[in-house]
Amino acid sequence: MVYENTVIIATGESEERSEQIELPLLERKDLDLLTVLGSGGFGRVHYGVYGGVLEVAVKQSHQQHKNQDRFSDSFYAEIRAATLQHENIVRVLGLCVDQELSDDALLPMLVMEYAGDRNLQSLVNDRSECIDTSRRLKFAKDMTSGLNYAHNRGFLHLDVKLLNVIVSSDDRCKLADFGCSLNKAAGKADTPTKSMMTGTYAYRAPELLRGKVATDRSDIYSLSICLWQLLTRKRPYADDEHQVIVFGVVSYNLRPELPEQFDNTVDERYCELFKQAWNVDPTARPSAKQLLSTLTELESEVND
Predict the structure, then answer these.
(1) Which of the following is catalytic: 159, 177, 219, 267?
(2) What is the pTM of this model?
(3) 159 is a catalytic site residue
(4) CA dihedral sign of residues 81, 85, 86, 91
């Protein structure tokens, strides 16, 4: 589908720290919002159809925000990440403005591919779903491949968790929700305070909990918790309080409980892999590229 109009958005609070991102500008009259897929602090995600034929997911902001600065950061982070085009990342199709409201209350809507109606967390929670070694490695490779692509282009996701991974109808995992992301290439990853506040605490790297600057290895730590979940199908740290988890991770190198035994040697090596990825020292964690290489080796062993 071809879009004739485009919009150029400046994504920073000042000229020195701003990028100009060009996105297709989609016609509101051609966009039908059908059902709400989910909602959060800054808006809702709708299932919709564009042009009568194309299934889309639409992230629509609330008309008013209690924290306008934080909303702007999240919105512009999503816009910057719209340049990422990869099979394991939810693709942004364009921007739409809701002009059904008054001119001073226009709501920006980010229109994305409709990647599926399941996230990886819901799939892991569903005990009727079989996640054997082969499928687990495929999911792990998909997530790691998307991260590797983003990292190679200077992007840090900074909110990697199973809830932010969409599983498509052909069983492909796609990273979603780049509202916490930072762009190193554009000088967006040099604020320790912001780095500390991004993401979800159970997945957040120890260095971020200490207020340090985010790096690509911060994403690797978050990914390690996801890989642990794919193996155990449990929630990290169960019902422990937020403060208890943060204190344990920072002060005592707390990590989720490991299985006592494994079904095969591949699963045992898989466990060693995510243990490396949650090392307290970011420099000791493998890169996404290194993780991807090892996961590919393990997948080959299973398929032989």
Answers:
(1) 159
(2) 0.90
(3) yes
(4) positive
